[in-house]
Amino acid sequence: MDGPGGWRRPSRSVMTKMMKESVKTGHPTGLPDKLVRLFAPGPPVRFVAENAQPKKKPKLPYTGIGALVSEFAGPGDAEYQPPSAAAEQLPQARMFRNKELELQVRLDDETKLEK
Q1: CA nearest 25: which of 12, 14, 38, 15?
Q2: What is the CA radius of gyration of the chain?
Q3: pLDDT tens, 22-70?
Q4: Is residue 73 within 8 Å of residue 80, measured between CB atoms?
Q5: Rounded to an integer, what is the distance from CA 19 to the centroid of its chain?
Q6: Spatial distance between the Cα atoms of 34 and 51, rounded to a whole number of angstroms
Q7: Does residue 8 contact residue 2 with C-beta atoms inside 8 Å?
Q8: 1 Cβ contact partners less than 8 Å away, ≥ 6 residues apart
Q9: How far apart are CA 92 and CA 83, in angstroms?
Q10: CA neighbours within 13 Å on the CB side: how many for 94?
């Protein structure tokens, strides 16, 4: 019998021979040795106890700058610069961001929304 495309189906004996050749590896799947080796199990995973905690590095205690305040330049030192006059002034009142808002006037009449 011819199959689709004009190829001929192999006989039963040829099929049996092909199946026996594919099982030469001795593996139940019949895969070649190279493929069987790819899926071979690796070394066992190292056992880790459930209650074992990873070792933590000791942390250094927090220190502030209090110990270094004496190293800052003071009024008698050559490096000392007094604070500028701009830093001591209080900030001025904020000006309007929208210049037109300054010119707008609130009317004494009630609007429709306010009624």
Answers
A1: 38
A2: 45
A3: 656 667 777 778 888 898 899 998 877 777 777 888 888 888 888 888 8
A4: yes
A5: 51
A6: 41
A7: yes
A8: 8, 9
A9: 19
A10: 3
